[in-house]
Structures are given as structure tokens and as C-alpha cells.
Amino acid sequence: MRPPARGTARLLYGAGLAAALTLPAAVAPAHAAPHPRTPAVVPAADGAKGQELPGMPTVLDSRQGEVSCTPASKATAEKQDWSRQRLDLDRLHRHTTGRGTTVALISTGVDPGAAGLGGRVTASGDAADDCVGLGTFLAGIVAGDGGGSPRLAGAAPAAKILGLRGTDRTGVPQPGLVTAAVRAATKAEADVIAVAVALPRRDAALTRAVADARKAGAVVLAAATPETPARGSSDEIPARTYWPAGEPGVLSVADMLPAGSRPDRALPTGDVDLAAPGAGVVSGGPRGKGHYLGGGVAVATAYAAGAAAAVRAAHPDASGEEAARRLTTTAYPADIPQLDAYAAVTTVRAGSGAPAAGPAPAAEPVAVRDTSGTDRATGRAVLFVLLGSAGVFSLLWAGFALSRARSRGWRPAGAGTAGKP
């Protein structure tokens, strides 16, 4: 009867070996499955509480008659905000600082003597009187050098700013002023034209001005919507197209939160080309050397404009359309593509040569992948392997013990050895 016992043992060993070889393969799909390419989610650099800085308004209250301009901030930022980390500006500046480019910024005006802008601002007349402060704040996001805090520099800290007024003194957009500003920017041969306001109705004169600007080779960007209303609910406002963001060839820009989503009360609109940081962003103002916190669609537009200046400086032979295409094709994929300034500058496009300057480029945008789903699957697979392995070894040990017991004729171990010398 021993041969059948040996056959049983061999069968048990064979089954155990097969199981041991098969179980690790069950783990492979969890590791081999490709990670989804998701945008990085970067928390605010200053923690949950945030930095104690005054807010930068987008419009002043004129109901009281006499308008009081935004006062100087007495506070200074101590840390880099999340937006600059999200756009990887420290690394971007090793490739380009936007030197040699001019960004026309159409907002509430820009103070030519503002701190952190290093005398690189050209503004005259009403455009040099920034009562609201928003235009100067945006200029710092586009081209500020950070003053004594280089990590608070803008996207293109060596670019020049052409400050233009597209609003009245309180910050309310005016179609005629926006049109005149676009034409002035085109005449000045600005490389990038950023319209940080949005108009509810299309204007024929503005349409022609934008078309002429694009024909002249400028990258034209515009706020996708007006700023979120301070009162009431945006849910009651139907989705619509705003201008000049809706014009052909204009890059429409929306604001996003650190998690990559749009603010809950953001105004609805149609197609948006890019989303950029637009909450809790640090920059300076027209008075004093202090900092403010700002947000909204205008802030996101300023970041996109700074990235466009960086692209044009790094790729001077690229046309305006090619530069704009770089911003959109290298963006993080999402419901609204999310601006990746570093990738827009460094990615080598098919059929192109090496970048104009800097070390070897990254072929893909750097992304922090969300592996939580894969990690959970891996954890379950590992647990399955451990339990399965324990069962296999138990099975092998049982087979070994059964074989030894049969070979002794079922006598206890050591039995029959007494009396032997």
C-alpha cells in the first residue's frame, strides 16, 4: 500500500507547488496596471490656516459716492503659496524667466513704481493710476521678481509689463476701454495680451481688435467669466459665453482651487481652454511693499499670461498660435485642462529640435499620481498571497507528515528504536 501513499504525497506536493507558482501571479495585475495620469494635488504651503494677509479686491464699492482706494498692506508673506508650487515655478525659472518678452495686461491699470516689478512696467495716463490695486497685483503674478522673496516671484520675472486700463477707476469693465487697450497692445507689438476682464455681450469693434492682435502674432488670453458675484447664487445664472474669451483663437482661462476643481459658486460658461490657480495667491500692490491674498478668474488669467511669456522667451521662433498650442497641449488632462507652465516650456514637440536653452527637457509634464486605488488593490492581493501561502505550506507539511507516518507503518516517531546500541 506504500506506492499509493507515495502517489498521494506526490499529488499533494504537485498541487502545492502549482499553487505556490500561481499565487504570486495574482499580484502582478495590481502592480502592472498603469497608473492613471492625474494632476498633482498640492496643499497650501502655509498649512490649513493660511497666511494672515489682507485681501485684494476686484472692484471698489462706489455706492458711498467718494471712492477710497485700496490701502497699502502692512503685512508680508512668509511662505510660498500653493500656486507657485503647483506650477513648479522654481524649476521653470532655471529654463527661462521670460526675458525679452512684453505682456500687455488689461485690467485696472498698473503702478509703474510698484515694488517687485523692477521698473519693467510701462503705463501712462489713467493706466498708471491703479486705485483698485488688482492690475498691479496681477502684474506681480505675471512678472514680479518677488523683491526680497524670490520664491514669491511671478511666472516670468524678467518680462516687461505694458499696463493698460480696461475698467473704470472702481474696477467695472468698459467695452470701449477694453477695445482701445487691445489696439494699444497690438500697436506696441506685445508678445502676450492678457484681458483680465470679461464682458457679457460681444462687441464688433472688440472682435476686430482681437483678430488684428492675433494676426500681428500676439498670444491673446482672456478671463473665461466675470468674477463670482459677491451676493446671490451663481446657480441662478445660466451658462453663457463671455467676451473676448469667446472670440476665435483666444485662450479662455478659468480659475481653480488647490484640488483642481473650480470654486463652487463660479459662474457657468461654455468651453474653457485652461484652468490655472485662482485662490489664495500672494502678490503685491500699488502702494507699499506689503503683500495681499487674491483669487478669481483674473488671477488665473495672469498666471496663464506669465506662462505664455515664458514659452515665447524659450521658443522665440514659435508663432503666437504655436505658443498658445503649447499651453493647451501640455496641460494636465482634466475636465478643464490645467496649466502646466514647466511642461509648456520644456516639452519637446514632435518634429521640433531641442529647446532654446536649459538642460535636457522633460518629455512629459511632471505629475503626482493618485495611486490610492492601486494601493488598496495591492493590499488585498498581498493579504491573499499571505493567506494562500500559509495554506500551501500547511498542505505541504501535511503531505510530508502523511508520507513519513505511512513509511513507519503508522508507529509513533522513535518507536522500535529502543534496545538498539
Molecular structure report:
The chain folds into two domains: 69 residues; 265 residues, Peptidase S8/S53 domain (Rossmann fold, 3-Layer(aba) Sandwich), CATH 3.40.50. Helices cover 34% and strands 10% of the residues. It has ten helices and nine strands. Helix 4 packs parallel to helix 7.
Keywords:
Rossmann fold, globular, hydrolase, disordered N terminus, alpha/beta, two-stranded antiparallel ribbon, Peptidase_S8_subtilisin-rel, 34% helix, seven-stranded parallel sheet, 421 residues, disordered C terminus
Largest sheet: 7 strands, parallel
Shape: globular
The CATH topology of the largest domain is: Rossmann fold
Question: What would CATH call the homologous superfamily of the largest domain?
Answer: Peptidase S8/S53 domain
Q: How many discrete structural domains?
A: 2
- Overall pLDDT level: 80
The helix/strand order is HHHEEHEHEHEEEEEHHHH
Task: Assess the beta-strand content as a share of residues.
Answer: 5-15%
Chain-wise SSE layout:
Layout: H1 2-32, H2 82-86, H3 89-92, E1 102-107, E2 121-122, H4 134-143, E3 160-165, H5 175-187, E4 192-195, H6 204-215, E5 219-223, E6 251-256, E7 274-277, E8 281-284, E9 291-294, H7 297-314, H8 320-329, H9 341-346, H10 372-407
Parallel strand pairs: 1-3, 1-4, 2-3, 4-5, 5-6, 6-7
Antiparallel strand pairs: 8-9
Helix pairs in contact: 1-10, 4-7, 5-6, 7-8
